[in-house]
Structure formats: C-alpha cells, structure tokens
TrEMBL record:
Domain of life (superkingdom): Bacteria
Family per record: Belongs to the phosphoglycerate kinase family.
EC number: 2.7.2.3
Pathway(s) per entry: Carbohydrate degradation; glycolysis; pyruvate from D-glyceraldehyde 3-phosphate: step 2/5
Keywords: ATP-binding, Cytoplasm, Glycolysis, Kinase, Nucleotide-binding, Transferase
Residues that hold ATP according to the record: K211, G299, E330, G356, G357, D358, S359
Membrane spanning residue stretches: none
Kinase listed as a keyword: yes
Known catalytic reactions: (2R)-3-phosphoglycerate + ATP = (2R)-3-phospho-glyceroyl phosphate + ADP
GO molecular-function terms, A-Z: kinase activity
Claim: Transferase is one of the keywords in the record: yes
Protein name: Phosphoglycerate kinase
Length: 400
C-alpha cells in the first residue's frame, strides 16, 4: 500500500480560512419510534479530525450518508438529529443544510466563518452518490467538490464503496486521510502483515455466505478460527448434525464441509447452544449439546461450554480479530455467549481488534469497556474486505 497523505500534512500547509470537505461516516442507528440516536459511537469517532480542523480555523463542511434512502429525500433518514448531537459533542452549533448540493447547502457553506462546522443533508438523497453511471456520479462529485478547497476522508465505514463522495471527489481536490481512516488502515495492516502469534479469529453473525471470502482468506494465516452465531448451524449441518429450525444456508453446506476438511483442525465450532421455541425475547429456552438439537427448536446463542472452550483458545492468543456476535445479543436471554466471548477477549494478553458492525454495537449495548479492546473498527464490511485483500475504492482514491 502506498503511503497516504494525512490530516497532519494538510494542517502543516495551513487551513485557516480554507473550506475543508470532510467525508464522515455518521450512519448511526435511530430509534424507529422517536428518531433518537441510539448509539453515537460513529459520531464520536470523527471528533479528533473535526476538532483539529476547527482548532486550526478551517471552514469545515461535513458530508455523510444515513441508512438506505432510494436516491431521493426521505425524512426518516435525515441527518438533522445527527447535526444536533455533533454540535453537543463539539461544544458549538453545527450549521445544518437541508439539502445536499442545493440552495440550502450553497448558502450554509457560503456563510461559514473560520472554525465553524456545517453538515450537509444525507448524501444518498441524491441519486448521483451511489450511481453506477460514472457521468451521473461524476456530476454529483463536481457539485460536492465545489464546497471544498481540500478533502479529508474520515469515513472508514464507507471506503469499500465506489460512491461519489468516497471515490470521485478525491480526484477533484487535494486529499488526505483523516485520523480515523489512518488508524483503521494502520491497525488492519498489522493483521494482514505479520501478526504476533497465536493469531485467533472469532467470526459470528448470521450467514456463512457473508463471511465466506474472509474465511477463505484467513484460513491459511490464522492459528485458530472460532465460529459462532447463526452461521455456525450451517457448519454443524455439514458435520451431519440436526440443527432443527435454526438459521441454515442449505446451499452452503457442501462449502462448509470442504472448509472443515481443509482447515487442518483450525476451525472450532460450538459444542453446546441455547435453543428456543421461537425467535422472541420471552421464548422458552434451554441449553443442549450440538448433537441434541430438537427438530422443532432453533438455536439463538452459543452455550456456556462453548464460551469456556472459545475463551481458553483466546487466552492463549497474542492477536485477536472478532467480527460478528455469537447470538441474538439484542435479546437478554440470548446475549450471554456474545458477552462471554467479548469479556474473554478483554482478558487476553493480546492485541485485539473488534471488526465493526454488530460486534462494535454489541460492545456498547452490553456496556463493556471499549478501552479494554485494542481497537474497535467503525467499518464492518470495510474491515472484512480489507482482510480479504480487496482493493477498497476509497483508500485507492486517497493513494492516487
């Protein structure tokens, strides 16, 4: 990987009075009933970059996406609540533009004083942001780039997307990596380089198909690969076990069988699981061995023996990567597996990386001390694609 120009390089050149367009990842979860932010972790993650620019006297123009609107304004995906929370965290009002590149955005940016911050409305309200048509995407990038004299990408959670604000804008402005993106790349490059061993990876989540590429990429390099979450049932089925009504990808059973055969014993699977009568927080449930899953019940968490076995493997590790919960942690009855593995990671004498997405959400939802992990990534999909060895469009654009 080429050396990236950094925020410090930009600050050294001087940004006082200059407009700096910052691509952030402010895609925070919102309460469906109230619209309130339920986890502001991604907002906090961009504060070091924004704070440095504000202190240096830049006119800071922040842009981000939120959710998956269909290329047109949709009130439920407005960044309005984010502007309020960002202002609270920065300790100064954030000026909010009610469109992305229209009259409100132009006037909001034009009125900025040195050291002030503006936030544009959701980038995905404009079809040009995610368009596969290069001309349409480029036209939108031209409009965005007009708001900046320089560009900072601090949206690691979006660097695996070939979107206008991530891939096309850097080609139009002097560009650097923000503090967050730089830290993410530094950390993940440790895992793909020469990690201290034993190197143990924990993968969870629902689908094997979502993680197949990273499993294929990691198997030759890891010492142990611990598999939990909904995806474990396809592996158990590959061993000829009954999995009841648990989540199962039938078309992946042969693939899982092949992975197990090729793994040389590196893959560890659950030995017990928590099964329930239904996918519901109050469903009747108990713990069974994996060779005793009733045909009418479904697995929603790994069991205590599995936690103990996985924890023993983690206690020997010097490098740990974790992506994906062990069960349905959002329901208290099925959160013990995820909590147990997370706590085991914090106790290990190892450099630990939490691979974003649901794993990062679980750390916060379960009230665990974030500082006891080596690094909590802000990009689930981006971190996995980095470990797979894929070229990430946003990083490639910064290298050019």
């Amino acid at each position: 990987m080429s050396a990236l120009r950094t925020l410090d390089d930009l600050l050294a050149e001087g940004v006082s009075g200059r407009r700096v367009l910052v691509r952030a990842d402010l895609n925070v979860p919102l309460d469906k009933q109230t619209g309130a932010i339920t986890d502001d972790g991604r907002i906090r993650a961009v504060l070091p970059t924004l704070g440095a620019l504000v202190e240096a006297g830049a006119k800071v123009v922040v842009c981000s996406h939120l959710g998956r609107p269909k290329g047109a304004p949709d009130p439920q995906f407005s960044l309005g609540p984010v502007a309020g929370r960002l202002g609270e965290l920065l300790g100064a009002p954030v000026h909010f533009a009610t469109d992305t590149v229209g009259d409100s955005a132009r006037s909001t940016v034009a009125d900025l004083a040195d050291g002030q911050v503006a936030l544009l409305e959701n980038l995905r309200f404009n079809a040009g942001e995610t368009s596969k048509d290069e001309a349409e995407r480029g036209a939108f990038a031209d409009q965005l780039a007009a708001f900046g004299d320089a560009y900072v990408d601090d949206a690691f959670g979006a660097v695996h997307r070939k979107h206008a604000s991530v891939f096309d804008v850097p080609a139009r402005l002097p560009h650097v990596a923000g503090r967050l993106v730089l830290r993410e790349v530094e950390v993940l490059s440790k895992l793909t380089g020469d990690p201290e061993r034993p190197y143990v990876v924990v993968l969870g989540g629902s689908k094997v198909s979502d993680k197949l590429a990273v499993i294929e990429a990691l198997l030759p390099t890891v010492d142990r690969l611990l598999i939990g979450g909904g995806m474990c049932f396809t592996f158990l089925k590959a061993q000829g076990l009954e999995v009841g009504t648990s989540l199962l990808e039938k078309d992946m059973v042969d693939t899982c069988r092949n992975l197990l055969e090729r793994s040389g014993g590196k893959i560890m699977l659950p030995v017990d699981v928590v099964v329930a009568d239904a996918f519901a927080p109050d469903a009747a449930h108990d713990t069974v061995r994996v060779d005793g899953i009733p045909s009418h019940r479904l697995g929603l968490d790994v069991g205590p023996e599995t936690v103990a076995g996985f924890s023993a493997a983690l206690s020997q590790a010097k490098t740990i990567f974790w992506n994906g919960p062990m069960g349905v942690f959002e329901m208290p009855a099925f959160a013990a597996g995820t909590r147990g593995i997370a706590e085991a990671i914090t106790k290990a004498d190892a450099f630990s990386v939490v691979g974003g997405g649901d794993s990062a959400a679980a750390v916060r939802a379960l009230g665990l001390d974030e500082s006891s992990f080596g690094h909590i990534s802000t990009g689930g999909g981006a971190s996995l694609e980095y470990l797979e060895g894929k070229t990430l469009p946003g990083i490639a654009a910064l290298e050019n």
